[in-house]
Structures are given as structure tokens and as C-alpha cells.
């Protein structure tokens, strides 16, 4: 790694979180700063929050930023849980300008891809060979796919059609809260979703991330799937850590 510290900002449909990261340990250095995602969540509004977040830490180095969108060559090409105005936005140029950074000091990537990078790099010693899928259960469902540790960027398996519905409209963590589902009721929905995913890509391991991973003991044992499912080690900090890693090594999809 180029440095021992980095900085990541994780943008989600409900919150924007940022912190300095210990790149050797894969942990946050101090308390993260969290701000509610502005509504409407336009590029300019979100860029303002990101700039303020970085300023709070007086951070002068490279910055990694995640978006809940497909990101290719620094451009956002989708927008599932943020303003549609992001579609076609040159996010890399936007954040470089707003943060006063050179182009090589900013990396923008999909939020689930960032979380997956962090889990693969810093997670437990469970065998990560073969096809590994990280799923972030939050406002929506994000996915990151790895083959023998190498990322296949910008997968969108949270939008699989399951029983005629977009999967994340049935099995995201936000759906559990919105409909006041019990863990058992929600786990049945997640099981149905995972079975559909299993039939398509036959993963060797599934890592369950997002905020709901903090309560993995309440729902992972209720799943009825053939693939081993484990809770994300970095919990809801994985996106921040992965963003910092991406900025440190210069990853840009």
C-alpha cells in the first residue's frame, strides 16, 4: 500500500458517512461522521456534504467516494436510491472540483464493490476462493462479485427479478422496517432472493453486509439456502474502508 492512512466517504440512500482509515488494519481511525443524505439527493447537494465531511477531518490526501450507482470511468450510469440526476454525471470530475483535488487524488466506485474490496482484504480467514458474493442489505441491495479475489465490478444483483418483483423492493433491510416484518418473515424473503441468485451464479460463499449485518445472529440462522452465508466482518464500515483502499491503490472502474 502507498500509505498507512486513507480517507473514504460512503454515500447511501439514507446516509453519507466518512472517516480516516487505518489501511494496515482496515479499521476506522476515530469516530466516523454521518450526515443524512440530502433530499433531493442531487449531485450538487451530495457533493456539498462530501466536501464538508472531508473538511471536518482536515484531510488533505486522496479521497475514495462510493456511490449507490453503476460507476464506469468515473461516471454514474444508474440511480436506484438517489436522484435520477446522477445518471450521466461525471462524478469523478464533480468530486475533484468540489474537494479541490487533482484527478489522480479522487476515486469513485460503486458502494457494494467498495464494501466487498474491504471484506476480501481485511475479513476473516474463511476461504475466499472461487465465486464470492457480498450483498449489502440497506435502503436497497447492493452486490459485489469476486472470482478468486478479483472484483467483477458493477454487478447489480440487487435488482434481480424475483416472483415478478425487483428483489430489493422485497428483501432490502428498509423493507423490513417499512413493513414491520419479523426476522422470520424477512428471512423468508431473503431466502427466496438468495435461492434465485444461487441458481444464476452458483456462489461458493455469500457475505451479508450493510447495517443489518450487526444483527446477523437474528436472521442468518433462519436462512434456508445451499451456500455458506457469513456476516461481514467490517459491518457497516466496509464501504468507508473500501473507498479508502481504492483511493490508496488508484482503482477506478
From TrEMBL:
Top-level taxon in the UniProt lineage: Bacteria
InterPro entries, per the entry: ATPase_NBD (IPR043129), ROK (IPR000600)
Pfam family, one: ROK
Family per record: Belongs to the ROK (NagC/XylR) family.
NCBIfam families documented for this protein: PolPhglucPhase (NF045942)
The name this protein goes by in its record: Polyphosphate--glucose phosphotransferase
Organism the protein comes from: Kibdelosporangium persicum
Amino acid at each position: 500500500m502507498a500509505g498507512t492512512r486513507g480517507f473514504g466517504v460512503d454515500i447511501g440512500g439514507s446516509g453519507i458517512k466518512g472517516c480516516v482509515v487505518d489501511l494496515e488494519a482496515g479499521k476506522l481511525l476515530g469516530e466516523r461522521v454521518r450526515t443524512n443524505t440530502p433530499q433531493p439527493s442531487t449531485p450538487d447537494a451530495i457533493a456539498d456534504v462530501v466536501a464538508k465531511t472531508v473538511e471536518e477531518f482536515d484531510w488533505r490526501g486522496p479521497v475514495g467516494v462510493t456511490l449507490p450507482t453503476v460507476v464506469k470511468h468515473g461516471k454514474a450510469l444508474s440511480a436506484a436510491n438517489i436522484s435520477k440526476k446522477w445518471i450521466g454525471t461525471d462524478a469523478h470530475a464533480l468530486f475533484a472540483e468540489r474537494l479541490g483535488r487533482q484527478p489522480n487524488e479522487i476515486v469513485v466506485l460503486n458502494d457494494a464493490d467498495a464494501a466487498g474490496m474491504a471484506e476480501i482484504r481485511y475479513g476473516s480467514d474463511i476461504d475466499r476462493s472461487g465465486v464470492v458474493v457480498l450483498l449489502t442489505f440497506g435502503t436497497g441491495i447492493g452486490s459485489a462479485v469476486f472470482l478468486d479475489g478479483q472484483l467483477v465490478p458493477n454487478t447489480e444483483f440487487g435488482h434481480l427479478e424475483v416472483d415478478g418483483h425487483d428483489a430489493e423492493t422485497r428483501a432490502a433491510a428498509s423493507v423490513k422496517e417499512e413493513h414491520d416484518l419479523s426476522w422470520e418473515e424477512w428471512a423468508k424473503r431473503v431466502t427466496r432472493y438468495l435461492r434465485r441468485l444461487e441458481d444464476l451464479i452458483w456462489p461458493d460463499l455469500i457475505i451479508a453486509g450493510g447495517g443489518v449485518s450487526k444483527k446477523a445472529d437474528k436472521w442468518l440462522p433462519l436462512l434456508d439456502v445451499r451456500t455458506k452465508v457469513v456476516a461481514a466482518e467490517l459491518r457497516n464500515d466496509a464501504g468507508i474502508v473500501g473507498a479508502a483502499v481504492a483511493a490508496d491503490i488508484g482503482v477506478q472502474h
